[in-house]
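May I ask for whichever protein you like with its backbone structure tokens?
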Amino acid sequence: MIKLLATDIDGTLLNDNREISSSTIKAFKDLHIPKILISARMPQAMTHLQEDLKITDHPMICYNGALVISKDQSIVDITIPLNTISDFVEIARTHNLHCSIYRGKEWFVPELDFWANREINNTKVEPVVQDYGRTLEYFNQTRHKGGAHKIMLMGDEEFMDLAFAKAESKKLPVHLYRSKNTYTEITPNGISKIEALKELLKHDFSNVSVEQVVAFGDNYNDVTMIKEVGYGIAVDNARDKVKEVAVEVTDHHKQDGVANWLIKNSSLFQ
């Protein structure tokens, strides 16, 4: 029996308009189990989706597992050190890339360029606009010394290739994830969606085992989660590596793959 649902957002739960379809909303409403959104997104880019799904009282796993929030409290909070943030700011400057810096509910950008505006459109979140120096100074304040939950480099593929190689050569204490040819996401070492999910189970759902979880995903950062839960489901548009470890492949995210699987397998939730 499935006792908890965890799902990625982009490329998995959302439709072609980056929205939650009416079919998905109904499928979630009909499930009387905890439903956890788990994403590389920041909290503020997830709350409006929780509202659509009527699950605002449920926990969320943000920044690929670097931040887990339950009842407005952080139960996992792992960050990138300030000196490493500075390294990536310099890499971005050198290779003409946009650099977004995230901490909790805050998102910092140096200007509202093409990349910042694209993210605003995708996430429905407005960033704090200030130069890198002011942002680093802000992070250096005593209450912010924990660092950043995520850094995101965005820019032309050619420059991103150079920046990615440079970052790898520096062997910085972070995980580099090329989510698109034009995007590199930087998160703290040692974090993952599955480890964050396990911590959440221990903290909030001690009666639920990993084997009693269904999880949906599409990208490389979903692989370990899809592999380790009892019911790991890949959407049809998922990377081959995700499909290889999934117990089943559902429809494309543009065709309500998550909702269709939930409806088809409703008996597993009774």
